[in-house]
């Protein structure tokens, strides 16, 4: 796969939607240069969230996490571009906003790990799994003239 085609799944969690942060968060990824391939407000079912967080099912905080993620709509989107997964995670900041570097989304907009505003895939494999899970009908595919200016 060409590096420029790497994709990641990003979500603004219910607290971020409630606080009106969707536009700000999407804007950061757009202005960095990533192409938006899908964008949808989703009211996730428990089944979807159990699949999404399959690695965390045994964690003590899992029931709280499920309730948090079901407390309102989630703004789910897909970014594409060079380094989408790693840069995506870097832009979100450390999971616990108390440890997030200044300038990251979580440092700029959050204080608690249980209300950390956003999600980003942690590997190319989980990105592809999460994109298929949240966007079962598929995502857009299109060319952008700006890519000729953005990449060397
Ligand atoms: P995410 O999946 O949301 O991007 O977060 P992550 O990979 O950085 O962190 P992960 O360990 O996968 O945890 C998923 C989400 O669970 C909540 N959490 N709460 N101790 C706690 O109360 C706790 N630990 C994790 C956070 O919302 C975290 O983003």
TrEMBL record:
GO molecular function annotations of the record: ATP binding; nucleoside diphosphate kinase activity
What residue stretches are annotated with the Nucleoside diphosphate kinase-like domain?
5-141
Task: Give the Pfam families listed for this entry.
Answer: NDK
The transmembrane segments are none
Where along the chain is the active site annotated?
119
Annotated InterPro entries: NDK-like_dom (IPR034907), NDK-like_dom_sf (IPR036850), Nucleoside_diP_kinase (IPR001564), Nucleoside_diP_kinase_AS (IPR023005)
Signal sequence coordinates: none
> What keywords were assigned to this record?
ATP-binding, Kinase, Nucleotide-binding, Transferase
Query: Which cofactors are reported in the record for this sequence?
Result: Mg(2+)
User: EC number(s) per UniProt?
Assistant: 2.7.4.6
CDD domains to which the protein is assigned, alphabetical: NDPk_I (cd04413)
Example GO biological process: GTP biosynthetic process
EC top class, in one word?
Answer: transferase
Sites binding ATP sit at 13, 61, 89, 95, 106, 116
> What protein family does this chain belong to?
Belongs to the NDK family.
- Protein name per its UniProtKB record: Nucleoside diphosphate kinase
What species is this protein from? Coemansia javaensis
